[in-house]
Amino acid sequence: MNEAPIGIFDSGVGGLTVMKAVMHRLPGESICYFGDNARGPYGSRDIGEIRGFALEIAAFLEDLGVKLIVIACNSATSAGLLEVQRRCRVPVLGVVEPGARGAVQATHNRRIGVIGTRATISSRAYLRAIHALDAGATVHSRACPSLVDFVEGGEVEGPRVEEEVRRYLAPLLRRGVDTLVLGCTHYPLISKVIGDVAGEGVSLISSDWEV
Ligand code: DGL
């Protein structure tokens, strides 16, 4: 077995949800985690700027000798996965394609909702990834910028979070989505509220386990 660590990075702490899932599935692996607390959150930044951050961090992790890099950030994956893959010598995985695959497998009515940061939603990365797997699926996307602020502030439940989730999900639920991609590493931390608002008929797809 290659003893080198797996490198995982995110704009901050959100990617720890992915790291936890990787540690659970691959308990024998060592992991080097980089959280860019100095510059995160990324979600409302310019796509080109986020891509630059992703390239820098990936190069840093490669210099540390990691054998594989996981971009555990939807915004960074959407902005720069292909560019990072092109520049790196080691394999690089993102979180968008696994989430898209999970959604296509879970949906029955082929109406898929995607929530994420402004950067992720405006890049249309999930739309492309879902349509690459099922061109007939209907995708309804919504940027939910304030949810990251709640999680970063440690507010992961309660009436204020619930009201905001309700407001964001209402248009997606009206369109009958039966599957909802949590397209942001912070959202698994409020998945209880999201699940309660979405209701039992909606499957939640979370990047952490899909990766
Ligand atoms: N990690 C980011 C993502 O998954 C969420 C936080 C941020 O805006 O940087 O998109």
Given as residue ranges, the uncertain stretches (5+ residues, pLDDT < 50) are none
Helix content: 40-55%
For the report, how would you describe the main beta sheet? 4 strands, parallel
Order of helices and strands: EHEHEHEHEHHEHHEHEH
- Assign an overall shape: globular
- Count of DSSP strands: 8
Mean pLDDT: 96
Structural class category:
alpha/beta
Strand order of the largest sheet: 2-1-3-4
Instruction: Count the DSSP helices.
Output: 10
Mind telling me the C-alpha Rg? 16 Å
Strand content: 15-25%
Which ligands appear in the coordinates?
A: D-glutamic acid
Could you give the distance between the termini?
Answer: 21 Å
Description of the structure:
With 211 residues, this protein is α/β, with parallel strands linked by helices. Helices cover 49% and strands 18% of the residues. It is built from 10 helices and 8 strands. The strands form 2 sheets. Strands 2-1-3-4 form a 4-stranded parallel sheet, with helices on both faces. The protein has a 4-stranded parallel sheet with strand order 6-5-7-8, sandwiched between helices. α9 (191-198) links the parallel β7 and β8 (203-206). The radius of gyration is 16 Å and the shape is globular. The mean pLDDT is 96. D-glutamic acid binds at residues 10-11, 14, 40-43, 73-75, 116-117, 120, 148, 184-186.
Give a brief description:
The protein is an alpha/beta fold. Helices cover 49% and strands 18% of the residues.
Keywords:
4-stranded parallel β-sheet; 18% strand; binds D-glutamic acid
Topology, pairings included?
Elements lengths: L5 E5 L5 H10 L5 E5 L11 H18 L3 E4 L2 H14 L4 E2 L2 H11 L4 E6 L1 H6 L1 H9 L4 E6 L1 H8 L6 H16 L4 E5 L7 H8 L4 E4 H4 L1
The structure holds D-glutamic acid.
The site of D-glutamic acid has 17 residues, from helix 3.
